[in-house]
Amino acid sequence: MIETLTTWKPRALSVLRIIMGLMIIEHGMGKIFHYPALPAYANIQPLSLLGAAGFIELIGGALLILGLLTQPAAFIVAGEMAVAYFMVHAPKGFYPLLNGGTLAIAYCFTCLYLSTAGAGPWSVDAAMKRA
Prior knowledge:
- The chain is mostly helical.
- Helices cover 73% and strands 0% of the residues.
- It has one domain.
- Helix 2 runs antiparallel to helix 3 and helix 4 packs antiparallel against helix 6.
């Protein structure tokens, strides 16, 4: 069984990247296009700090879904999530469970992993290497 799981390791990396991209792009779409509608994102201006975060999430999420420029895109998104944690969540308290920062931490470190591991075989990056 372990050998079977090991053979799926590269594909699991691609699935992780795609799911992470879908989760990130959803936040960007909420901030920029107000879809899906979320009251906390209702009054975000495109030229504000949260607007800039929305553009990073929208573009970075799309790049992660496609697996295009995965490593730099994931690194930028990881940095954005670290900034989000320390600017928004950490001032509310030390414990991430209490300050609402668990998701930002999970996104940050998953994207940091993708920035080192790459896109996996199901990606534009891999297709460009094969060509």
